[in-house]
Amino acid sequence: MDGWQILELAIPRGSAAAIAQMLGYSADQVRRWMREALSDESPTDTGRRNPHDREKDLIRAVHSENPEGARLIVEDLVKFFLSLEAKQGRGLNSQTAEEIEAMLRSAQADLTKALEAMATERKLRCE
User: Which end of the chain is more exposed for a tag (fewer CB within 10 A), N or C?
Assistant: First the structure.
């Protein structure tokens, strides 16, 4: 899924202004992040690349030089998300430690597969 699609699903209609205010952007900028680019040749036709795609760019770049460093970034994001869930009374309170551990193991396995696929793709491009 492209970043704009993720943001379109993640940000409820009518919430762009509140999210923009928290981030220090205009509501229009947040709404642009949630729109499909006009063409594949110009992926920024709706404005700047969205933060989700930029984060993926960062992970891809770090992974090319240090795969373990990319894993650290992703693990930190997962930990941050889980801490937000816990603060809102979700996470550990609604799931057992075993369930959370299984979820993290599954996410780590998915991440490992994705990182290996990116490494393979990079090798093919270099050949």
Answer: C
| Distance (Å) of CA 53 to CA 48, 58, 99, 103 | 10, 9, 29, 24
| Phi-psi region at 89: left, alpha or beta (left = phi > 0; alpha = psi -120 to 50) | left
pTM: 0.64
Cα radius of gyration rounded to whole Å, the chain: 17
Contact 50, 57 (CB under 8 A): no
Q: Where are the alpha helices (DSSP H) in the chain?
A: 3-10, 16-23, 27-33, 51-65, 67-87, 97-126
Only one residue has tokens 């947040």, namely 30
Domain count, the chain: 2
Same domain, 90 and 44: no
Structural domain containing residue 14: 1-48
